[in-house]
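Example record

The entry below shows one chain as it appears in the dataset: sequence first, then structure tokens.
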Amino acid sequence: MKKQTFSNYVSSLSTVKTTEKHEVMKKIAAECGVSEITVFRWATGRTIPPMLYQQKISELTNIPVDDLFYVGV
């Protein structure tokens, strides 16, 4: 079974509505106190958020941290 990574989660929102994707990323940015660009970098896998932010994103998306930020070996 494929894990629901943060990148996959954000990508799945764009199939529903671009506005929804933007709103979710905007909410995550506000809740974490970071810019939307930073959240975009997290969502594209360019950077990985610190554990504190991973937990906040997990709470906001109702997806376990281990699934959102899974790093395969």
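Notes for this example: The chain has a mean pLDDT of 84. The two ends are 16 Å apart (CA to CA).
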